[in-house]
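Weekly modeling sync, notes
Attendees: S.R. (lead), two postdocs, one rotation student

Agenda item 3: backlog of single-chain predictions. S.R. asked that every request posted to the team notebook include the full sequence so nobody has to chase files. The rotation student volunteered to paste the first one in as an example of the format we agreed on. Action items at the bottom.

Example entry:
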Amino acid sequence: MPDVQSTPDVRNIPIDQVGIKDLRFPVRIRSQAGEQATVARISMTVSLPAEQKGTHMSRFVALMEEHRAALDFATLEALTGNMLARLEANAGKISIAFPFFRQKAAPVSGCLSLMDYDVTLIGEMREHAFIGSLKIVIPVTSLCPCSKEISDYGAHNQRSHVTLTLRCREAVAIEEAIDWVENQASCQLYGLLKRPDEKFVTEHAYENPKFVEDMVRDIATVLKQDPRIAAFTVESENFESIHNHSAYALVAFP
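Predicted structure, as returned to the notebook:
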C-alpha cells in the first residue's frame, strides 16, 4: 500500500516535535517502595526532517503496546531510544504524567492513609544524549509569618501546591523529591487524621511559619546540595485563606 507519510515534502521546513499527545494508557511505576500500577497520560514526539512529509503515528502506540517493563529513569531512557529507532528520528521526547500514591502514617496516632501526587516523568534524547526530568506537584500547608506576628492569637494558614521540576544527571526517586518539599513546609498534609493528629499539625504549622518566598528558597537550598540535580525549578502557589487570590513564587537554577 502507498506510504504517504514517507513521500518527499518540498516546503523545506523541519518540524521540531511531531507525534501523539495525551494517550491514556495503563503503566507500572518503579519507586523506592516497589512497583505501583497507575494510568498515565502519555505524549510522544520526534523531530521530522524537512524533506519528509509526515511521521508514522501508529508506531508510537505500537511501541507502548509492546512495552512491559515498569517505568523509571532507566527504562524511560531505553523506551526513548527505541522510539527514535522505530521512527528513524535523531531527536525525541516522551512525557508520562500519572497520579502517584504514597502511604503515610499520621504523626501521632500512626493511622495509615494514602496521599496522591501528580507526577510527570520526561525523557528527551538528542544525538544519543539522554536527559531525564522529574516533575511533581506536592500539596503542603503554609502558615503566614506576618499574620502570626501581628495577631494576639492565631494566624491564617492555607494549603499550598509546590511544583518541583528537576533535570537529573542521575536518577532521583519520586519519594526523595516529595520528602525534600514536605520537610520544608509549615506542615505536611495527610489523608487521614485523628483529633490528636489535628492538634499536632495545627501547632506544628504555627511553630513553623513560612512565606511563599521562604518556601521556594528553603527548598532550593536543599536541591542545590544534591549533585544528581543539574537544574531545577521550584514554584509555590499558596491558595490564600484571607484573600481572593493566590500568593506565588518561583526559583529557577541555574
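Discussion: group reviewed the output briefly. The domain at 4-253 is CATH 3.10.270.10 (Urate Oxidase).
Action items: rotation student to repeat for the remaining queue; S.R. to check formatting next week.
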